[in-house]
Q: What sequence folds into this?
């Protein structure tokens, strides 16, 4: 008889966002007149910008003519996109990343999970708490997380690094030795960022211990403060210890278009192997590239019009962030994040539990949020609000929250 991967059977009930969606649907079904505004899931709402649409139309026409038709593309991504990334996302920040250190997948979510393929099962994994659930669940699926302890809401083999008010929502270097360390800045869900000094301490730790930092900067487009690093490679020594994940999902509204990139420096070696070569081998075997039309769309973001138009969209969401932060402050609530990130991390009032406050907000204000507890034990007592909604709807949601509180 075929055997299943037993690790899947250890996964707890449901993926966080499915549970949020289930509760919203159940409430809507019972209250068909309720006009629910979702400040919950981190999906964008603004359309693709004209420069991107134009590039896609042009690429579609190319696909329809024999002379310009493209079949299978390079598994690593087309050079025109990899070179644009190296130039505009790295060189412009004074960072040298060669185009063959850049891999273009359809999704940062997939790559954050898939990267585990090149690492052994017996690595010790450290994650922030709260955390983007994908890092935890994919390590659990691979057998690196051990067993799930229902009563504690955590896996017994993972190192959880609490990110709480007392440490400014920034993880402290663990006492135990960690081999794989997931860091995400600007952070989902807390919206916190890391300073140069904090990242330098992580890089030094990783180089000293032979660890690898898996650095997710999917939200770097939302950084507003001058000295916040945009990429871990701005930190000296990162090329020998860090892999970076980026995504066009939030930068350019690509959640439905699907394109991202992953940087694996050629200087990064562990166990006598170059990780760039291992990742290349993995991609060539298991992945056949992002559609040509979508890669042309991504490249259009780097044109002057593309830059200007995508910045306008980011500014639109930033204005929402401000509306939410101002409203929460008027309601006398304590919130952080929201300055360099599209996420606001709200402390629930009156010591309410995360899911309790979720239900309260849904019933009393018809506003959906994401319960912090779903991101890990240290998220209990918080909820996450997102700025990706329609501006008018966001204003209305905030007024409703202020009114009931
Ligand atoms: N990384 C983080 C921290 C995220 O929050 C998300 C999406 O919510 C992703 C990655 C996923 O990016 P993509 O849409 O490219 O899969």
A:
């Amino acid at each position: 008889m075929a055997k299943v991967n037993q690790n899947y059977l250890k996964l707890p009930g449901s993926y966080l966002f499915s549970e949020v969606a289930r509760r919203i649907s159940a409430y809507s079904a019972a209250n068909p007149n309720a006009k629910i505004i979702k400040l919950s899931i981190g999906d964008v709402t603004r359309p693709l910008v004209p420069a991107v649409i134009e590039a896609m139309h042009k690429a579609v026409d190319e696909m329809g003519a024999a002379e310009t038709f493209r079949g299978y593309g390079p598994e690593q991504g087309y050079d025109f996109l990899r070179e644009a990334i190296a130039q505009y996302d790295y060189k412009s920040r004074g960072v040298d990343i060669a185009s063959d250190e850049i891999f273009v997948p359809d999704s940062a979510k997939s790559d954050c999970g898939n990267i585990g393929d090149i690492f052994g099962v017996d690595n010790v994994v450290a994650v922030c708490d709260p955390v983007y659930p994908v890092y935890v669940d994919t390590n659990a699926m691979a057998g690196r997380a051990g067993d799930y302890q229902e009563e504690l809401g955590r896996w017994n083999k993972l190192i959880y690094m609490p990110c709480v008010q007392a440490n400014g929502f920034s993880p402290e270097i663990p006492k135990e030795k960690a081999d794989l360390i997931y860091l995400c800045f600007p952070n989902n869900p807390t919206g916190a960022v890391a300073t140069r000094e904090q990242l330098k301490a992580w890089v030094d730790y990783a180089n000293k211990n032979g660890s690898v930092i898996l650095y997710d900067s999917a939200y770097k487009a939302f950084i507003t403060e001058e000295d916040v690093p945009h990429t871990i490679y701005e930190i000296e020594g990162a090329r020998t210890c860090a892999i970076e994940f980026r995504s066009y999902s939030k930068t350019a509204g690509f959640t439905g278009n699907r394109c991202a990139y992953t940087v694996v420096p050629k200087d990064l070696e562990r166990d006598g192997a170059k990780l760039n070569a291992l990742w290349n081998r993995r991609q060539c075997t298991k992945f056949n590239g992002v559609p040509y039309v979508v890669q042309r769309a991504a490249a259009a973001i780097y044109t002057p019009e593309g830059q200007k138009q995508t910045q306008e969209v980011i500014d639109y969401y930033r204005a929402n962030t401000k509306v939410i932060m101002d409203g929460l402050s008027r309601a006398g609530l304590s919130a952080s994040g929201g300055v360099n990130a599209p996420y606001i991390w709200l402390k629930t009032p009156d010591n309410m539990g995360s899911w309790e406050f979720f239900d309260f907000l849904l019933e009393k204000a018809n506003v959906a949020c994401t319960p912090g507890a779903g991101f890990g034990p240290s998220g209990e007592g918080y909820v996450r609000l997102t700025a990706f909604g329609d501006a008018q709807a966001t204003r209305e949601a905030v007024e409703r929250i202020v009114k009931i509180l």
Observations:
- The two ends are 57 Å apart (CA to CA).
